[in-house]
Structures are given as C-alpha cells and as structure tokens.
C-alpha cells in the first residue's frame, strides 16, 4: 500500500471574515492524515501515483489548506499512529485514516 502523509492548516482569521477585501491570515497547523492507497501495482513508481492523486488530496483556499508532506510504501496491514492508538486504548479503530483502492481511484479520476 502507498501511504501519503499530509499537513492540514486552518485559517482562524477567516472565521469572522465578512468576505469583503483581503481575508485575514491566521493559519494554525491542525494535524494531517495518512491517505492509504490500497493494492497499488508494484510496477508503477509511487511518485507517479502521488502525482495522479495530488489533485484529489491537496486543497488551498482562504479557509483551509492541506498539502502532501511525503509518502512511503507499507504492507497492507500497516496502521498509522492514530489508528494504533485507537486500537490500543479503545480496542477498535472508530476513525480510520482515509483509504481507497488503487483501481477504484484510477477509474474515478479517468
């Protein structure tokens, strides 16, 4: 599986913005996600997959931003730190990281 790590930021200046003039800028880092692309073909460079899905992951507007920090290849049973902590403390994963099957994702983007 290919795991794509992101950083999410929220513009706290936009909460009270009336939409007129320049949007106030008060960006706060709010964590991120580990997007899991399951069943990735071994014969495709992971960087190519990242570029294919970049537009469906990254976001940048006056209110929030999410951008890719990096990626890594893991086994299909890999859990993020967030998922592992849920498993350890709650006995289950109530909030899994976003995941998609490679072939379904490619079909959607085509």
Written account of the structure:
With 110 residues, this protein is of the alpha+beta class. The protein has one domain (2-109). Helices cover 27% and strands 30% of the residues. The protein has helices at 46-57, 81-90, 102-109, and strands at 2-11, 27-29, 34-38, 59-60, 64-73, 99-101. Strands 1, 2, 3, 4, 5 and 6 form a six-stranded mixed β-sheet that branches. A hairpin with a 3-residue loop joins β4 and β5 (64-73). The chain is globular, with a radius of gyration of 17 Å. The mean pLDDT is 93.
- Computed structural class: alpha+beta
Strand/helix succession: EEEHEEHEH
Mean pLDDT: 93
Strand percentage: 25-35%
Largest sheet: 6 strands, mixed
- Give a count of the beta strands, DSSP E runs of length 2 or more: 6
The total of helices stands at 3
Q: Specify Rg, calculated over alpha carbons.
A: 17 Å
Instruction: Please give the alpha-carbon distance between the first and last residues.
Output: 21 Å
The residue fraction in helices comes out at: 25-40%
Whole-number total of structural domains = 1
Overall body shape: globular
Low-confidence region ranges: none
In short:
The chain has 110 residues and is α+β, with helices and mostly antiparallel strands. It contains 3 helices and 6 strands, in the order βββαββαβα.
List the helices and strands and how they pair.
Elements: E1 2-11, E2 27-29, E3 34-38, H1 46-57, E4 59-60, E5 64-73, H2 81-90, E6 99-101, H3 102-109
Parallel strand pairs: 3-6
Antiparallel strand pairs: 1-2, 1-3, 1-5, 4-5
